[in-house]
Write a structure and sequence with these properties.
Shape: globular
Structural class: alpha/beta
CATH architecture of the largest domain: 3-Layer(aba) Sandwich
CATH topology of the largest domain: Rossmann fold
CATH superfamily of the largest domain: Tandem AAA-ATPase domain
Radius of gyration: 23 Å
Number of domains: 2
Length: 460
């Protein structure tokens, strides 16, 4: 296929070529991969780059980069080696003579540990830079160790700071070695933030100082470019449909009982992100229809969401449906329900499933949003999404929806959300709709739920 870049893609390509450290904060579906590959192809031709290492989410490493090279005529001479699989397979892939080596972020530590002394890559592309937002993570520390060996580094993401600008420091450090936002995260915090909620010496969140957001953006604006799809692309229409269900009285009773038990457990304690996440996780399970017992057995509570999902599939009238689930027991229950109703569901497990979906060979595709991540092109196989369970992560939610709602989609994308009334589902969909999900929203939603439940307990 002949590549005819959009004007913004030409700008992105030139930006990568003109900057040894470059951040492409392009919205989902805007062609970050092909733009990066085109820039690399030019740099290889000019002798400005020799060996490139691409670090990506596992599914993207397996499929997306090699598929893009095969897809575009001007890139077909690029030689790619995929560093995945067993240690022996990875070693063999490293030893191959290639232009671009692609590995998963889970293999970064292994790669640095085994090849630090013989490091041969002078250019690094981090596909989904935001996955390096923790300065304490082993993958960050490993990549930081070899950062001086790169004469060029490119960071790709559509969501550089989905929760807080605190997340930006590790990502920018990998790009510029601390030149713009400082060499330590402590110094970055002290310059731009003030402590928010805290318990003695433990700070739960950080709030921006006045004018800090603009100051941070100005600091990084020379090497990072940010573009949104709606400003540059004629994307298909998107329809968000909220399907509210009533869960049975027995399920409501279990839900309220669990809330009450957790209130007793949390009585007198500060509600932290950790215990709030545990609480909402359990409540979301009940909203979906099943929960893990203390013995890790699955206890089924209701089938209302399963019935709603069947209604969505029936209404699709044979058109493919992409279903996002939250928990392993969701997947097991969905698969059993589909089988009982003589419907065939397929879990997305690899490259072949992506091809089958895009070729129209899969009618119901099931996927966890954390695995749907960045770079998976599923827009050619369907235009209907069903959220069986909702995630608290705005980034996962946006990235998952963008698998279908992206450039190349020919039809209106319909996104169904199955929401259990009077449950934490309503808090999640409200936050997702307002695009304001962060730790504070989670904590405040939990506190509000607990306050309501506490009053109900007192009234009894």
């Amino acid at each position: 296929m002949n590549f005819k870049p959009w004007d913004y893609q030409k700008y992105a390509i030139n930006h990568v070529m003109d900057h040894n450290a470059a951040g492409l904060f392009l919205d989902m579906g805007m062609g970050k991969t092909v733009s990066s590959l085109t820039a690399i192809d030019n740099l290889l031709f000019l002798g400005d780059t020799n060996k490139v290492i691409v670090i990506a989410p596992k599914r993207v490493a397996e499929d997306t980069w090699s598929t893009e090279v095969e897809k575009w005529d001007h890139l077909k001479d690029l030689r790619i080696s995929i560093i995945l699989g067993t240690p022996r397979q990875r070693d063999e892939a490293v030893k191959k003579d290639a232009d671009i080596y692609v590995t998963s972020r889970d293999n970064v530590v292994w790669l640095v540990d085994n090849y630090f002394k013989t490091w041969k890559w002078d250019t690094c592309i981090i596909d989904e830079l935001s996955s390096f937002k923790s300065s304490k993570a082993k993958r960050f520390r490993a990549l930081k160790k070899v950062r001086p060996y790169f004469k060029r580094i490119i960071g790709l993401t559509g969501t550089p700071a989905p929760n807080s600008l605190i997340d930006l420091w590790p990502q920018l450090y990998l790009l510029d070695g601390g030149q713009r936002l400082g060499r330590t995260i402590t110094g970055y915090r002290e310059q731009y933030f003030v402590p928010g909620d805290r318990n003695q010496h433990i700070v739960y969140n950080w709030n921006l100082k006045e004018g800090a957001e603009d100051a941070i953006h100005n600091k990084i604006s020379d090497i990072c470019i940010s573009m949104m799809a709606k400003d540059y692309l004629d994307l298909p229409e998107r329809i968000d449909n909220k399907i509210y269900i009533d869960i049975p009285k027995s399920a409501k009773d279990k839900y309220k009982e669990l809330e009450k038990d957790l209130i007793i457990q949390l009585d007198g304690e500060d509600i932290t992100a950790t215990n709030a996440a545990v609480l909402t996780g359990k409540l979301l399970q009940i909203a979906n229809g099943a929960i893990y017992s203390e013995d890790h057995e699955v206890v089924e509570i209701h089938e209302e969401k399963l019935n709603a999902l069947l209604d969505i599939i029936e209404a699709a009238n044979g058109k493919p449906v992409l279903v996002f689930y939250s928990f392993k027991h969701d997947l097991a229950r969905i698969m059993k329900t589909l089988k009982d109703n003589k419907l065939k569901g397929q879990v997305l497990e690899g490259q072949e499933d992506i091809k089958k979906w895009n070729n129209g060979e899969i009618s119901i595709l099931l996927l966890h949003p954390a695995s749907a991540g960045h770079g998976l092109n599923l827009q050619y196989g369907g235009n209907i999404v069903a959220w069986f369970g909702l995630p608290w992560s705005l980034e996962l939610y946006q990235q998952a929806n963008a698998r279908l709602h992206r450039q190349g989609q020919k039809e209106t994308v319909v996104i169904h959300h199955i929401i259990a009334k009077n449950t934490v589902d309503e808090d999640v969909i409200k936050a997702l709709s307002s695009k304001e999900i962060n730790q504070n929203v989670l904590l405040e939603a939990v506190k509000a739920r607990l306050k309501i439940a506490s009053v109900q307990c007192e009234q009894k």
